[in-house]
């Protein structure tokens, strides 16, 4: 699959997204090991804007009622749309920890602020890991000198590795586009592979750009970018307490400031950010817990977007559908049955189901061709599979990305805390 | 656990439900092997009302838009609320098979009607198995003489075995209660262990009673019984195309006909039917695909029933919660997080979470007692576990029954068709 799958959000077309290490002018990043929960691996990441006064910042967070302490802190601190640094820890989520959890989140921000000689209020925090465990402050204090010392322009990669929990690979994506005669870079890192579902997957995403962009324009494209990426994916239908997307803009590219959301420059920037975020979203699904396949579920021809979205996610989250993909069993009945219980307006006699370009169900019954099972089976052996359910009721369409459901998903999640 | 768990529907109290073989005056049942899909085991079941004119009958069916051909047929034939027989096949669902599927369902009813010398319209059909496969008529024809010959008063057990697919045990339950000075029996058989979710689990349930009960009263208690049983359980959140509950009443008990829904006799009968159906529902969850544990999730103190129900099912369907139960890992954060994304009105600072009587989360934070993890772990080793989330927002409460998510669920479902 190309880095950005065909059929992806229209805004992401014509943007070449690269996977792998990158730098973003105006930022340094780094990682260190605190030993807070994991042994022998970095578990703290720090991203710092080099500007004295920090940089423009925007964020999108979990909609879970039980939001983690660092999410509360970020929401509060992003009101001014500026930030100097983001401190991230992996292993302990600092969620469902009450007032004590919030106090500890503030305390870690203080520790970083002191080391960076900046105001504590300009430091954002994010955590991922086990819910209900207390964040440990001493390990953060002890690791801070090493963490600050590790800061480098190309430190995003080590940051991407440090924030991993059940992830098997670090996720990085970047793009460079021309905006107002200058080359602007957008780069992002992400973590997350379980508790992934829309309204923010269980994930942490930190993106940096050197574009000079007004806070309200950055807000707009951050929200739009989240909708077109992390709100289109699912691994297990669960929405985490800690989901965080933070986008930082240093302005170091020296482009004429983007202040008009509708300007060409704004659109070019928004497209690049959307493409990077979407590619990170696809990387998350491909690295879903136990995932062996990437599956693109499109519900087309729906009466409205909400119906298309519901049907696509009902199919994408069905354990029966997901285990069939794992077993490479082209059991299309499960897909049709999941759509049928989703509540979308649907006429059984009109709908048609396709695996790639192969129609397997139409007119309320199976397509009765001799070699159809064989052809469907071949498609199910692919590592990446496109499924398309055309309801033929209207014009709305939605694509959800999911992965299969394997033994390893159970293995990983039956023993996560031990 | 007692046959009917404490906290079950109020209507089921004081009814002693028995598991195991039973007979119901006025009915015979039996099974035979057609070889349609399974080899060397009975896969056809027949239940017949002995009365010349059949018996009173009521049904509740799947709400899936893609409903199977036999479901369509039953809906049509139950308009008159009478039936002579129910023919069931396992292995092929005859769902998503269009007009041809409906024709074949009618044809199997004809084959049975001919053998029983009754009108074809008085024969109901039910199917379970793979979606999209054509039902085979010849095997049904060939097996019909043996099937009719096998009919016996105690044939419900062999019928219960014949309708199994991924079930590991046959499910039977019965109760005897006094109604109007006569002993009335209610007995039922059920199958289903995957694609189980409310709005009818993926299941087939056939119950018989010798009560003399008016059609509209039977309808009332059949619907109420389904709500208090099969609409409270989930295995994987999927709703099948074939869900069918049929209740048959022969009147052989000779009780004064129950015609008034609000009468004591009606309530006594309704309670017995509800208790039998609820016990079958619990048996289904205990035999859920790959299940090793039965989990009772109660959301109490909700503002309204819909919120309580949504929250309970969101927790009960969460793969992260279910794998944690399989791993015997008392990871309460996943339960809280699932409730937090369910949409129920909830104040993080007020909610409290209990495993059995052990409070693990309260006031927005973990209960900080030294031995709490150890005590929670002991509870998680039980085969049957009660979870209670008290939202302290109102008076509404809902209990959902679910099972854990194991390697075997994936194994069973990755290779179901092969």
Largest Cβ-defined interface: A-B, 65 and 65 residues
Fold-level CATH name of the largest domain in chain A? L-amino peptidase D-ALA esterase/amidase
Mean of residue pLDDT values of chain A: 91
Strand order of the largest sheet of chain A: 1-8-9-10-11-4-5
Shape of chain A: globular
The CATH homologous superfamily of the largest domain in chain A is termed L-amino peptidase D-ALA esterase/amidase
Distance between the termini of chain A: 36 Å
Oligomer: homodimer
Annotation field: number of helices of chain A: 11
Stretches of chain A where pLDDT is under 50 for at least 5 consecutive residues are 1-11
In the CATH hierarchy, the architecture of the largest domain in chain A is: 4-Layer Sandwich
Count of individual domains of chain A:
2
Rg of chain A, alpha carbons: 22 Å
Structural class of chain A: alpha+beta
Listing every helix as H and every strand as E from the N terminus to the C terminus, the arrangement of chain A reads EEEEHEEHEHHEEEHEHEHHHEEEHEEH
Tell how many strands the DSSP assignment of chain A holds: 17
Binned strand content of chain A: 25-35%
Supply the CATH class of the largest domain in chain A. Alpha Beta
């Amino acid at each position: 699959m190309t880095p950005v799958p065909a059929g992806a959000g229209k805004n992401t077309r014509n943007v070449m997204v690269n996977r792998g290490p990158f730098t973003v002018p105006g930022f340094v990043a780094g990682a260190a090991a605190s030993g807070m929960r994991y042994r022998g691996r970095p578990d703290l990441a720090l991203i710092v804007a080099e500007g004295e006064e920090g940089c423009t910042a925007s964020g999108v967070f979990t909609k879970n009622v039980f939001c983690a302490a660092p999410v509360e802190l970020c929401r509060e601190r992003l009101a001014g749309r500026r930030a100097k640094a983001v401190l991230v820890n992996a292993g302990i989520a600092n969620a469902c920890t009450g007032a004590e959890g919030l106090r500890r989140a503030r305390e870690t921000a203080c520790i970083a602020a002191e080391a960076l000689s900046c105001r504590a209020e300009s430091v954002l925090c994010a955590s991922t890991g086990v819910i209900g465990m207390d964040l440990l402050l001493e390990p953060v204090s002890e690791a801070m000198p090493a963490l600050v010392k590790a800061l480098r322009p190309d430190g995003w990669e080590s940051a991407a590795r440090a924030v991993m929990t059940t992830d098997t690979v670090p996720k990085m994506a970047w793009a460079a586009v021309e905006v107002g005669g200058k080359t602007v870079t957008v780069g992002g890192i992400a973590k997350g592979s379980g508790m992934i579902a829309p309204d923010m997957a269980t994930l942490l995403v930190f993106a940096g750009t050197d574009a000079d962009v007004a806070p309200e324009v950055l807000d707009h494209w951050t929200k739009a970018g989240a909708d077109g990426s992390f709100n289109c994916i699912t691994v297990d239908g669960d929405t985490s307490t800690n989901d965080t997307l933070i986008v930082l803009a240093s302005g170091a590219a020296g482009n004429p400031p983007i202040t008009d959301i509708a300007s060409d420059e704004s659109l070019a920037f928004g497209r690049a950010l959307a493409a990077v975020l979407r590619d990170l979203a696809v990387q998350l699904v491909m690295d879903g817990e136990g995932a062996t396949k990437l599956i693109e579920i499109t519900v087309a021809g729906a009466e409205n977007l909400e119906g298309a979205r519901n049907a696509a996610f009902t199919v994408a989250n069905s354990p029966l559908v997901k285990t069939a993909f794992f077993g490479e069993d082209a059991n299309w009945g499960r897909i049709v049955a999941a759509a049928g219980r989703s509540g979308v307006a649907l006429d059984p006699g009109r709908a048609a189901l396709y695996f790639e370009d192969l129609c397997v169900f139409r007119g309320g019954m199976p397509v009765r061709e001799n070699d159809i099972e064989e052809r469907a089976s071949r498609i199910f052996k692919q590592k990446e599979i496109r499924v398309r359910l055309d309801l033929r009721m209207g014009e709305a369409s939605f694509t959800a990305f999911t992965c299969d459901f394997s033994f390893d998903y159970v293995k990983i999640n039956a023993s996560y805390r031990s």
